[in-house]
Amino acid sequence: MPKIEYIIVHCSDSDWGTASEIRKWHLANGWRDIGYQLVILNGLLKPDIKNVQKKLYIESMDGSIEYGRDFDGDGYLVGNEIGAHAVGYNGNSISICLIGKTRFTLKQINSLENVLKNLMKTFNIKRENILGHCDVQKGKTCPNFNVKNFVRDRIK
């Protein structure tokens, strides 16, 4: 049973979303659950659907962190705790997904910094083991910013 050693940062590649919405998308693709353990919201919970509803934006939810795929915090991922987010890293990493494509809110960035610090402490994860999806899977650009630089500049 491998120990949690990495944190992999992702983006949803959508302007809006929640953990429950991503779970729906992943289940519709035949996955057994949402791929990510944590999701950081941008406050935009529903898209703009013409003549049906306006965009549902709740400012106070910007930067909120939602629990996605279940994990118990014992330092190991077993069974359904194992994510579906980065080939070769699913069994020994916690995944965080930021809602967004290429631009993220300041509240999301601050939440990412805080949750990274907490996860590092909780699971004794080294700074160099915080990576972007693009760092572990060829051809990916996700999360569309340099996670190594983010860690260097923000995680002290």
How would you portray this structure in words?
This protein is an alpha/beta fold. It is 26% helix and 17% strand. It has a single domain (6-154), classed as Peptidoglycan recognition protein-like (Lysozyme-like, 3-Layer(aba) Sandwich), CATH 3.40.80.10. The protein has helices at residues 19-28, 106-123, 133-136, 147-154; strands spanning 6-11, 38-40, 44-46, 56-57, 65-67, 93-98, 130-132. The strands form two sheets. A five-stranded mixed β-sheet has the order 5-2-6-1-7. Strands 3-4 form a two-stranded antiparallel ribbon. The chain starts with 5 loop residues before the first strand and ends with a helix.
List keywords for this structure.
156 residues, alpha/beta, Lysozyme-like, 5-stranded mixed β-sheet, two-stranded antiparallel sheet, 4 helices, 7 strands, 26% helix, 17% strand, globular
